[in-house]
Amino acid sequence: MSEAVREAPKKERPEFRNIHVTELSNYRLPLAGLVSILHRISGLTMFLLLPFVLYLLEQSLRSEISFAYYQGIVSYPLVKLIILALVWGYLHHFCAGCRHLIMDMHIGLAKEQARHSAASVLAVSLTLTAIIALKLFGVF
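^ thats the sequence. predicted structure below, dont judge the formating
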């Protein structure tokens, strides 16, 4: 090797690492990625809470007294917020699942189309959740 090649400064190459949990706040996730992660979180939450929800349904259907008991529990605002969070999780999971099924048919895979479909998933799920919240809190 010649002297010029040996003495030439080496360029610093970028270091690519996996993202650590402590660095998540510094990472800018695209909207489609956020929708995808929320889809997974909502699916896991529904899967884990399904036995509990089915148990509550079974208990509420045992008699008129047990139904009235659980109806009284649901009247508390904190319980209504928990129910609303579960409703949002279901609606988001459903809308994002439809988006993923459409994308599995190779429709809307371009970057701009994927961004628009992710935004529409959030808009539709949040709008439907707001409508249900109005009904749940007795506005209509």
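The longest helix spans residues 31-60.
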